[in-house]
Design goal:
- The longest helix is centred in the middle third of the chain and has 60 residues.
- The protein has two helices and no strands.
- The N and C termini lie far apart (about 100 Å).
- It has about 80 residues and is mainly alpha-helical.
- This is Phage shock protein B.
- Keywords: Membrane, Transmembrane, Transmembrane helix.
- It comes from Pseudoalteromonas luteoviolacea S4054.
Protein backbone atom coordinates (compact mmCIF):
# COMPACT_ATOMS: atom_id res chain seq x y z
CA UNK A 1 0.00 0.00 0.00
CA UNK A 2 1.24 3.41 -0.81
CA UNK A 3 1.24 6.33 1.59
CA UNK A 4 -1.50 8.11 -0.37
CA UNK A 5 -3.78 5.07 -0.16
CA UNK A 6 -3.24 4.79 3.58
CA UNK A 7 -4.00 8.49 4.12
CA UNK A 8 -7.13 8.13 1.99
CA UNK A 9 -8.30 5.11 3.99
CA UNK A 10 -7.64 6.86 7.32
CA UNK A 11 -9.64 9.89 6.20
CA UNK A 12 -12.42 7.67 4.84
CA UNK A 13 -12.68 5.69 8.09
CA UNK A 14 -12.65 8.88 10.19
CA UNK A 15 -15.40 10.50 8.14
CA UNK A 16 -17.39 7.25 8.17
CA UNK A 17 -17.27 7.02 11.96
CA UNK A 18 -18.22 10.70 12.21
CA UNK A 19 -21.27 10.16 10.00
CA UNK A 20 -22.31 7.04 11.91
CA UNK A 21 -21.91 8.86 15.23
CA UNK A 22 -24.03 11.77 14.01
CA UNK A 23 -26.76 9.45 12.70
CA UNK A 24 -26.83 7.56 15.99
CA UNK A 25 -27.16 10.77 18.04
CA UNK A 26 -30.03 11.92 15.80
CA UNK A 27 -31.67 8.52 16.26
CA UNK A 28 -31.45 8.85 20.04
CA UNK A 29 -32.93 12.36 19.92
CA UNK A 30 -35.82 11.16 17.75
CA UNK A 31 -36.45 8.25 20.10
CA UNK A 32 -36.51 10.60 23.11
CA UNK A 33 -38.84 13.01 21.30
CA UNK A 34 -41.25 10.22 20.36
CA UNK A 35 -41.51 9.25 24.04
CA UNK A 36 -42.46 12.82 24.92
CA UNK A 37 -44.98 12.92 22.10
CA UNK A 38 -46.56 9.68 23.33
CA UNK A 39 -47.02 11.13 26.80
CA UNK A 40 -48.51 14.33 25.38
CA UNK A 41 -50.75 12.28 23.09
CA UNK A 42 -52.09 10.27 26.03
CA UNK A 43 -52.86 13.48 27.93
CA UNK A 44 -54.68 14.94 24.94
CA UNK A 45 -56.72 11.74 24.48
CA UNK A 46 -57.79 11.92 28.12
CA UNK A 47 -58.78 15.57 27.76
CA UNK A 48 -60.78 14.82 24.61
CA UNK A 49 -62.64 12.04 26.42
CA UNK A 50 -63.58 14.46 29.23
CA UNK A 51 -64.71 17.09 26.72
CA UNK A 52 -66.89 14.52 24.91
CA UNK A 53 -68.58 13.70 28.20
CA UNK A 54 -69.23 17.39 28.86
CA UNK A 55 -70.67 17.89 25.37
CA UNK A 56 -72.97 14.90 25.88
CA UNK A 57 -74.25 16.43 29.12
CA UNK A 58 -74.81 19.80 27.46
CA UNK A 59 -76.64 18.14 24.56
CA UNK A 60 -78.93 16.33 26.97
CA UNK A 61 -79.69 19.61 28.76
CA UNK A 62 -80.44 21.49 25.54
CA UNK A 63 -82.62 18.75 24.09
CA UNK A 64 -84.55 18.39 27.34
CA UNK A 65 -88.21 19.40 26.87
CA UNK A 66 -88.22 21.43 30.07
CA UNK A 67 -85.37 23.54 28.77
CA UNK A 68 -87.18 24.15 25.49
CA UNK A 69 -90.39 25.22 27.29
CA UNK A 70 -88.42 27.52 29.60
CA UNK A 71 -86.69 29.07 26.58
CA UNK A 72 -90.05 29.71 24.87
CA UNK A 73 -91.48 31.30 28.02
CA UNK A 74 -88.47 33.59 28.36
CA UNK A 75 -88.73 34.64 24.71
CA UNK A 76 -92.31 35.85 25.32
Amino acid sequence: MSGTTMVFLIVLVSVGFGVISDLYSKYLQAKKQSGINKQESDQLKTEIAHLKERVAVLESIVTDEGYQVDKKIKSL
